[in-house]
TrEMBL record:
It comes from the Bacteria. This is Transposase insF. It comes from Salmonella enterica subsp. enterica serovar Daytona.
Length: 68
């Protein structure tokens, strides 16, 4: 994908020049780049659930160790 190429080579070339050479709109690149680095609602929910389960498991293990 052209946007991935631009992302990987930002340190070497200007975004403006790469967009021109690859014939992509800079506005499209910036929208893609911004979305790529945002997590969606499902990913946020999954992270919250993972943390809740991790804490519950840790609490349960701590309780078992204290009673042993």
């Amino acid at each position: 994908m052209k946007y991935v190429f631009i992302e990987k080579h930002q340190a070497e070339f200007s975004t403006k020049a790469m967009c021109r050479v690859l014939q992509v709109a800079r506005s499209g690149w910036y929208v893609w780049h911004q979305r790529r680095h945002q997590i969606n609602q499902r990913q946020q929910f999954r992270l919250i659930c993972d943390n809740v389960v991790r804490e519950a498991f840790s609490d349960a293990n701590s309780a078992m160790v204290r009673h042993a």
